[in-house]
Each structure stands twice: as structure tokens, then as C-alpha cells.
Amino acid sequence: MSHPVPVTEPRRVIADRALARAAAAFRRECRGRRTHPTTVRVGTLGGAHLQIPHDPDLDGPMCTDLLEMALEGLDLTVTDCWMTRPGELAPGDADFAWCTSARTAYGRFDHRLTRFLVITRTGWFDLLA
Questions:
Q1: What is d(CA 122, CA 111) in angstroms, rounded to the nearest whole number?
Q2: For the chain, what percent of residues have pLDDT higher than 70?
């Protein structure tokens, strides 16, 4: 006996596949490198996106302004925001700072950031989950 698939399931599967593609692309970028820069990315997960290099000297409002400029003109209902970085698979200060800036930037366009993914070589997590 088969059970009907919930209507939300195909969308979640598509999102999970996009996340898997983004994580695989990041691992390919890391091949042969000992280290790589922390980068915030805005756009289509696993597809076309803009990159904002992390600079520890930037303050929160400047990060928010950079994200706002990156988001301008994009369809925020299908736009993701995520960070790729080296290190352990645990939240860090830069993760929280960029997530806060992303929430503020999305809010300036009257949209709610539903997830902020952090992708490392070893895995990923959603900082808003």
C-alpha cells in the first residue's frame, strides 16, 4: 500500500538536493588547498550566486549594507544566503555576525530569512534551525 506524498515534500527534496550540490561544489573548491577563505554567498543554492569575502575588520552595519546591495533586485522568495568556511562544524562568532546581518538585510526588503546555512568541508548546519 503506498502513501500519498505530502505536497511540501517535493519542495523539501529539491532544497535538499540544492544543498547537496552546494556542499559538493564547496568541497571541490577546497581540493588541494590547505585553507580557504570564509565567504558569504547570496543567490541560488548550488547555482548562480554572489560572493562576499569575510573581513574581520567589517562591522555589523557594513556587512548588512553589503548583503543589502547583493540582495537588491533578486527574488527573495527563492534566494538563499549561506556561508562557506574552514574549521569545525560548530557555530562561531563570524557565523552569528553574518546571520544577524543577513536577517537585517532581508528585513529591509520586508522578507524573513528562513535559513542561514553554514557549509564546511565536513558538513553543514542551519544556524536558524
A1: 31
A2: 79
